[in-house]
Design a protein that fits this description.
Two copies of one chain form a homodimer.
Chain A (H helix, E strand, L loop, with lengths): L11 E5 L23 H13 L4 E4 L19 H9 L6 E7 L5 H15 L3 E6 L4 H4 L10 H19 L7 E4 L4 E3 L9 E2 L4 E2 L14 E4 L4 H10 L2 E4 L4 H13 L12 E10 L3 H14 L2 H12 L27 H13 L4 H9 L5 E5 L1 H13 L5 E4 L6 H16 L12 H4 L12
Parallel strand pairs in A: 1-2, 1-13, 2-3, 3-4, 4-9, 9-10, 10-11, 11-12, 11-13
Antiparallel strand pairs in A: 5-6, 7-8
Helix pairs in contact in A: 2-3, 3-5, 5-6, 9-11, 12-13
Chain lengths: 446, 446
């Protein structure tokens, strides 16, 4: 730890890596390389840059269905876990967070794959736990309908419990490796999972020795009531979309407050709101970058996306009029991203946005906090959130990649380091160490 | 192609990478490093060496359950697909063959993961298709019993058909990437899979553009009747355990003869029998290496393994007596590895082996062809098999790793190259190119 870092709260930074960037029109920008969206070297370079900037981890999202708007937007993401396994071989310190769904997977596979990633990376694996959305996904797995929201979370609880039992089944001293006696393992130190739930069961034990972190860092990003309950029980790292510092403070207090019921303390869960920075040498230049991307948004695309999220066909609504509030479903009827539904509706209502304005407002960040300014202004914002109890750090979502990452690393990171609120070197090797989760036990089965 | 290679049949070489080696006692040898069995760097070095030796591919097996004999033997293999994804990032030419089961997976996941591996590796992915064995595996996936042999293969056919439809759903010209017009993809060139089978269904389309090979090389290793039928329909690369050149010739002729019924020609499927070489500067030195490893075999382990394979408890049989043939099940009743059951029983009967002799005989290679000799003798054997129509190459299974690979690469490979029957440089970039499968269409859905 440098002198400047002494005693100051430290920011955690995660890079949310997404093809040409998080702005939906990013791929159309002259600085984008949409033809490289499935090229590993493109991601390798960004991952190595994030590691040079000493970020905690790289996060990759994952969907199990084709986005219908692939016509209008670069979607091809390589499968998240496959990418993270490949990136593990060409990075040394940075954490690797891959998304996998508890609705359409089996605990044994997930446990085995993440344990392998944790071995390969030397303790840098993290699992972003999602429950997936929509019937289109269900039909890719032989099912007519997606599981209901509450049943999905019920299954998710069972799934993680089973996986944790698998990961912790091998004691640290299970391996004997006694070549002379011909004894490789002490079978009494390898326990079966023997998990029997309502939704799934798994016998175990896992066929891999305990990995460096034992349990990969558990990550979660659902902010609905079910999502928050789940996070309070299991999550060690939470990504969240917060449109303002006020909403972020409320979310932070709510979620950290829920930990005690599970016998957990506030340091055992880090909250990283999404941050979409437009970086300019002047504020005007930054705003101009934002305007330029917003103008590239294809309106059909925006309207389709908004219709899907609100589960209401908006194609007959005037773009410059308000949302048809009377036709929207009640939030509890929404199957899918309940928290984001609520966020968009509240945003439109409170700021009296037209449909067009709401589309533009959310084009860049899907409701995540967007800031356009100089490196100093952006660092000011980040520091304010950190010190106000709105965040333990940020999930960095550059609107345009790779240039938005290059700018952040070369301009904002040094500013954060100068202020002593962000590391200049990794002090440990595992992701748990980066996140300050060591010394605390990993999640335990009940 | 070098002058020596002109017009000669070429060997294909696959490295079957397995922790400390294929001999069950390998981990006890003084040259073994069992403490590195879950260390990625250990495998990375071997993979890079196999690539320097211009091998076609690296193969990694995969099991979804803990081996009960973990007490006696190093088992921890990192999950095959995760490993291959990591190796993709640190190799450039060599093919990457990962095992995944059609019984305990979903086609959408498998298609998405292998397409991603094919993108990341630039067209080097291959899928070893297995149907898994045993109720212990079933119980790791919430099932009481494993699917019956014929139902497993029925599901396997459906699974591969569905996966091929997913892989071939994106036409080569589906991507427009027209930044000016804001059009990313031509949706009319992306087809759904719409697969509805008896065992599974999947809607599709896949959410990834066509990968370099479109379909990963399809690999198969079951030699039962069901397995051969399956291979004739789908496989492009077959691994097989053949104890002698005679059995290999018969297998080769049988399997290649089955291709015509599927409209396939003999070049569209390459057959690689397993080869377990003990390499010495003299034949005596090689035999000594073999003897030394056989002596390290733990007899409890050998008896347990044999009992499991023959599905008969042998613990009350005298080690120096014959197999209790009258108590063995009929081959068609065997749930699991029918072909290997038959192979072991035939071997014992024909060579009048005692149980002890059968254990020692199979300790090193589980029924695969074993040869102990000088590099010239081993190259002679390989050339004889190639020219006699017993093999298109070999699945190299060094009894002891990494030293057995080091010896093979430094001593046997140059000898094969001097004879003009093995490449000195890769002529292509993809695994299909290495295997001479280009110009022929990849497997098509019916």
């Amino acid at each position: 730890m440098s002198a400047a870092e002494q005693g100051r709260r430290q920011l955690h930074l995660n890079l949310f890596m997404l093809s040409t960037g998080h702005h939906e029109a990013s791929w159309r920008h002259r600085d984008a390389s949409p033809q490289l969206a499935a090229d590993f070297r493109y991601y390798k370079r960004m991952a190595q840059l994030a590691e040079q900037a000493k970020m905690d981890s790289i996060f990759i999202a994952e969907k199990y269905r084709l986005n219908k708007m692939t016509k209008y937007r670069v979607i091809p993401q390589l499968e998240a876990f496959t990418m993270q396994a490949a990136l593990a071989a060409v990075t040394e310190k940075i954490g690797l967070t891959a998304t996998a769904s508890t609705t359409y997977n089996e605990p044994y596979h997930i446990a085995r794959k993440f344990a392998s990633l944790d071995h390969i990376s030397g303790g840098r694996a993290a699992w972003n736990i999602v429950t997936s959305t929509g019937d289109a996904t269900a039909r890719n797995f032989g099912k007519e309908r997606h599981l209901d929201h509450s049943l999905r979370y019920e299954r998710a609880h069972e799934f993680v419990e089973a996986a944790v039992r698998l990961w912790t089944g091998w004691a640290e001293d299970a391996l004997l490796i006694d070549q002379e006696a011909g004894l490789y393992a002490d079978m009494s130190r390898i326990k079966a999972a023997d998990y029997e739930g309502k939704h799934l069961s798994v016998a175990g034990p896992l066929n891999l020795p305990r990995s460096p972190q034992a349990v990969p860092v558990l990550v979660q990003a659902g902010s609905s009531e079910d999502g928050r309950s789940f996070a309070a029980r299991w999550a060690e790292l939470v990504f969240t979309a917060q449109p303002s510092i006020e909403s972020a403070i409320a979310f932070y207090a709510d979620l950290k407050g829920r930990l005690k019921a599970w016998g957990r303390n506030k340091e055992q869960l880090k909250i990283l709101p999404g941050l979409i920075p437009f970086i300019g040498d002047s504020e005007a230049e930054a705003k101009e970058k934002e305007r330029e991307l917003n103008e590239l948004s294809v309106s059909d695309y925006g309207l389709y996306n908004l219709s899907a999220l609100l589960q209401t066909d908006l194609s007959d609504c005037p773009l410059d009029g308000p949302l048809p509030y009377e036709r929207l479903p009640a939030p509890e009827q929404v199957q899918g991203q309940q928290a984001r539904f609520q966020l968009y509706v509240n945003l439109a209502r409170e700021e009296k946005l037209s449909i067009r304005e709401l589309i533009i407002r959310t084009a860049g960040g899907r409701g995540h906090f967007t800031v356009a300014g100089t490196p100093i202004q952006i660092a000011d914002t980040m520091q304010r959130w950190l010190e106000a109890g709105a965040a333990d750090g940020f999930n960095l979502m550059p609107p345009l990649l790779p240039s938005g990452l290059d700018d952040f690393v070369s301009k904002v990171v040094p500013e954060l380091q100068n202020r002593g609120i962000y590391r200049t070197e990794y002090s440990g090797n595992t992701l748990r160490e980066h996140l300050g989760l060591t010394g605390m036990s990993a999640p335990q089965p009940v």
